[in-house]
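Give me the 3D structure for Bacterial Ig domain-containing protein.
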Amino acid sequence: MNSRYVVLLATSIFAISSTSTQVSAATKTKQQLNLKVAAVHRGDRYITGTATAGAKVKVTRYAKTFGTGKVAKSGKFKFELKQPVKANWHYRLTVTKKGYKAKVIHFGVVKKVTPAANQNSDVAKLLARIEQLEARLNQTQPNSDSAEVTVLKNQIANLQAQIDSMEPRLLDVYEEKPEWKPYLEQIEKLREENSVKYDLFALVRETVETTQSNVDYYKDRLNEKKIELQKDQENQSLQLEVYEVEKRYVESLDHLEKVKAAHEKVGNHVLDLKQEMDGIDLKIHKLYDQLKLLGYDYGED
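Predicted structure for Bacterial Ig domain-containing protein (301 residues):
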């Protein structure tokens, strides 16, 4: 065969192979992630649900991460949040996995417990029971045909069927539209910036003298308790009191340093700081007005 034709044939095959790979990769990135999440109510500390196996789940609010988790091989996930969710707040839940299009939703937290809330509480219990059974299954030989393994698998399948029939979903869920993203990102950055300013403002509103007097109070109280303890060293109740007072004394010292640092940083510009905070709040409000024109209508919490 002519070497010229060999080169042309090899080049054509490579081009077709490369195109096929690119098309395959492009197709893969367009795969959609599955997601079902149990409704979230005031005071809840856990996020539970089902999603594409191996995906990562993250809950945030204004750039602050409240919790993360990973979807198990079974397609289920459950993870604890850093603090309980608050009524009437909205949170962002992001699901990601390599080769898939990221899925971002927002969800609201309802104040009152409804029948749907009881249903989702049942879902959480069923998921916990499935986890227990799967742990037992893993301790045995899951690939064997023993009677115990069969019973465990049947129990897991039945529980999963109950969950599927309930179809748990988030209340007040809405998917994030691409055109919202730049506005929401700006709002998150501004919220984060103002959060620092609000903390600083709260500190400068406290006088150094008042904070110092609080330190002096705990210092005197600690000395008194230590003297009492020296007279009765076996008294466990006194030992605990000394521990608690000393803890508060250390905390008050730390707070005093923060107040002093805040006053040193702000100086006589407290009004300027307040105006900066109000200015940022106004920018956020205007961004929400622009979002509403794009169909966003989920509050400014």
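The chain has two domains: 32-176, 179-293. Let me know if you want a second pass.
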